[in-house]
Amino acid sequence: GPGMEESKNNAGKVPKKQLSYTAIDAFSKLVVHLVKYADARAKPSLLSKVLEIVSGVLKKELENRKARGLEVTMDQRPYFRIFLDLQQDLTASYEAENLGNEQTLAMLQRFADVYHRVLQPNLVPGFA
């Protein structure tokens, strides 16, 4: 994941790492609060921008690792956690605010769009 380099042990296997998701969870909460308190018209574009940035960072990390021959060692768990946290927390926030199905579906459509357009397996095989 970001800032983590894996080292091989004597058997040549990449050891499993115990990750701390504190920073990722805090980032997710920050984004949820920014979207929650944003103007209703700005919520969709703000969320789209955040999702585009996170997926762009993921793609850039994969490109850098591929250039260095480390593509297979990428730890995708931090990115998965960001997307999972954001989707779960925003869905809960929208439901708590009684924003209605139309706005909730529009928010979920933003995630679907990024998953389909940017993070599909043939474009980002290291994240599949």
Structure commentary:
This protein is mostly helical. Helices cover 61% and strands 0% of the residues. It has 4 helices and no strands. The chain has helices at 22-36, 43-67, 77-96, 100-117. Helix 1 runs antiparallel to helix 2 (43-67). It is globular. The two termini are 15 Å apart.
Write the topology of this structure.
Blueprint (H helix, E strand, L loop, with lengths): L21 H15 L6 H25 L9 H20 L3 H18 L11
Helix pairs in contact: 1-2, 1-3, 2-4, 3-4
Q: Kindly provide the radius of gyration, computed on alpha-carbon positions and rounded to a whole number of angstroms.
A: 17 Å
Query: Stretches where pLDDT falls below 50 for ≥5 residues?
Result: 1-10
Helical residue percent band: 55-70%
Give the strand tally. 0
Categorize the overall geometry: globular
Report the β-strand fraction as a percent range: under 5%
- Mean pLDDT equals 82
Query: Which structural class best describes the helix and strand composition?
Result: mainly alpha
Major sheet attributes: none
Order of helices and strands: HHHH
Number of helices: 4
Q: Report, as a whole number of angstroms, the end-to-end distance.
A: 15 Å
How would you summarize what this structure contains?
The protein has helices spanning 22-36, 43-67, 77-96, 100-117. It is mostly helical.
What features would you highlight for this structure?
mainly alpha; 128 residues
